[in-house]
Amino acid sequence: MIPSVLPTYNRAPLSFVKGEGAWLIEADGRRFLDLAAGIAVNALGHAHPALVAALTDQAQNLWHVSNLYHIPQQQALADKLVDHSFADTVFFTNSGTESCELAVKMARKYFYEKGQPERVEVLTFSGSFHGRSSAGISAAGSEKMTKGFGPLLPGFVHLTFGDLDGVTDAITDETAAIMIEPVQGEGGIRPVPDQELKALRQICDDHGLLLILDEVQCGVGRTGKLFAHEWAGITPDIMLVAKGIGGGFPLGAVLATEEAASGMTAGTHGSTYGGNPLGCAVGCAVIDHVADPAFLAEVGRKAGLLRQKLEGLVASHPTIFEGVRGSGLMLGLKCVAANTDVVAAGYDAQVVTVPAADNVIRLLPPLTLTDEDIEEAFARLDQAATALSAKQVA
Questions:
Q1: Is the separation of the CB atoms in 127 and 190 below 8 Å?
Q2: Are 287 and 244 contacting, i.e. CB atoms less than 8 angstroms apart?
Q3: Phi/psi of residue 140, each to 5°?
Q4: Which domains does the chain have, with CATH numbers?
Q5: Burial call 99-134: b when 16+ CB within 10 Å, e when fewer
Q6: CA distance 268 to 297
Q7: Which residues lie below 8 Å from residue 331, measured CB to CB, with a gap of 6+?
Q8: Which of 43, 174, 207, 228 suits a disulfide with 223, CB 3.0-4.6 Å?
Q9: What confidence tier does 393 reach under pLDDT thresholds 50, 70, 90?
Q10: Which of 68, 314, 364 has its CA nearest to residue 189?
Q11: pLDDT score at 362
């Protein structure tokens, strides 16, 4: 008999009922160190006082109105994002998936309005993840996400991650844009080297294409910059944002230059809940914290400390771990053992991690975790690896 909640997740036998900073409390009272943050969502941890205050204050005044009217909180958040980024304009969504849908529409509409309606193709890369909508799975193209959901949407060309020559070879008169994650998340914490991002920007400039960056998982301070592409010294034309921007409240956005967004006029796109007062009030509080240079510097410092601990962990457990990869507080442990076994062993040690492709476990902790939390993370991961090693011997 099918359960009342559609069984599309293979859920761990855990029920968390409360959160405090980087910690989750299970219904039975056990405390788990959260190195997942809702998959890079809880950027400021659980129950952050500023976010609680922002949500509570707004909830006492106004929850929702239609986008048929001006929404002051939406305007305030848009202004903050424009001030802190390459963008000239912002459209608010509820999720990264929605942001992907709009980014693709925006790129195609741009060329349609330029008198080049044939330019609809978007170049994407192996290992990518752009959400679970029809456009999102078509963009990624992996069998895991697309099998059984055909026919797929046309207009996406799938290239090998890291093959710059393949990018140039794939460009035709029908190419509109290149879409890529500066750091792949679901794909196994694979950063795109700065020089490759620079090269992709140059390819787009040389061929008159739009560069779309998907920073749903790697953005909003996760790498130690407000947005990951800043490390490469480039800017996109369109950017997808979600996850961390709401700190746990469902919120996403598409940021764009005035030129790239020029085709998106009144009536071309909409969202019932996107940019509502509750979400944007929380988003303003998140950006006020995360965009602070001192906060980002602390993310970088803590990332260095955590990475140092993880390198030691790998050296101590060569039958469990192979190496560390990633950027900032978006780190991956490449496993020798099955990554799902490592995640399960972590649950036994009361530490939460997330599996990814390429036999990697992801560490995406709240950006607010403390040095003491990092010490505890090492201790609990070490405990998990030791227990798994003992099982291997047995």
A1: yes
A2: no
A3: -75, -45
A4: 33-48+293-326+337-344+351-393 (3.90.1150.10), 49-290 (3.40.640.10)
A5: bbbbbbbbbbbbbeeeeeeebbbbbbbbbbbbbbbe
A6: 40
A7: 189, 303, 306, 307, 310, 324, 325, 362, 363, 364
A8: 228
A9: confident
A10: 364
A11: 98
Retrieve residue 195's tokens. Answer: 């020089």
Residue 142 near residue 132 (C-beta atoms within 8 A): no
**pLDDT value of residue 159:** 97
Residues forming a β-bridge with 32:
24
Q: Which residue has the tokens 């993880």?
A: 310
Name which of 248, 240, 220 is nearest 41 in CA terms.
248
pLDDT: which is higher, 142 or 30: 30
Residues 6+ apart with CB under 8 A from 237: 177, 204, 210, 211, 212, 256, 257, 259, 260
Number of Cβ within 10 Å of residue 391's Cβ equals 10
Q: What pLDDT score was predicted for residue 391?
A: 86
Length of the chain: 394
Name which of 33, 52, 37 is nearest 366 in CA terms. 37
**pLDDT at residue number 39:** 98
Is the separation of the CB atoms in 223 and 244 below 8 Å?
A: no
Reply yes or no on whether the pLDDT at 80 is more than 90.
yes
Confidence band, pLDDT 50/70/90 cuts, at residue 52: very high
Give, as one character, the DSSP assignment of residue 245: G
**Beta strand extents in 277-343 (DSSP E only):** 321-327, 330-335
Q: By C-alpha distance, which of 249, 125, 240, 254 is closest to 192?
A: 125
Q: Is the pTM for the entire model greater than 0.90?
A: yes
Position 279 pLDDT exceeds 80: yes
C-alpha 40/C-alpha 369 separation (Å) is 13
